[in-house]
What we know:
There is one protein chain. By secondary structure, the chain is α/β, with parallel strands linked by helices. The chain folds into two domains: 117 residues, Resolvase, N-terminal catalytic domain (Rossmann fold, 3-Layer(aba) Sandwich), CATH 3.40.50; 74 residues, no CATH class. The chain contains eight helices and five strands; from the N terminus they run βαβαβααββαααα. It is elongated. The C terminus is likely disordered.
Amino acid sequence: MKVFAYARTSTTQQHPENQLIELRQVAKRNGWTIEKEYCDQLSGAKGRNERPEFDAMLKSAMRKEADLVMFWSVDRASRNLSHLVEMMEDLDAMNVGMYFHQQAISTITPSGKAMIQMAGVFASFERSMLKERILASHERAKAEGKKIGRPTMLNASLIASVELLREQNVPIKKIAKKLKIGVGTVYKVLQHEKDAEIIERLSDLGGDLEYAR
């Protein structure tokens, strides 16, 4: 089986080689051939277009240049659950699997694929709830005669500020007022955190799943 190995570290002080060493060992045990290794050194919160090696790997995988893409951990692929599920569906359409070493999850097995698909259901439900909350806040704002502006783009500083205030039990509306952002943007940040929590649940449950050996 031809595979791609992907490693990502958040800072230049960390080295992706540690992740690649383990992935090479996994490939060797399973008789897989690593066609190419890809590495990015930046935050997993970055979008695909901001992760050049990640983007290049997925494009090659979509051209069927590999049968499987390997990640050291789920969060090395993405910290956004929706993006993770979309990626799995795109690759699955081309009969390309995904393997997450730390969680022992592989989408080439029925159990691994079911786990990711169930996570997608949770993510869809959370998005629906978020949409309802945002619409409700917009209607309330209109009733109070307030102007509804365009959503603020998320960035690391904003996310950290919202998380800190929320940990201090500051109400949503007060967070929005203090940071001069919309209520919907606050909910968007919190949704990002919910995605991360679900991915952590995947990590906890992953050890019980079977995977290709």
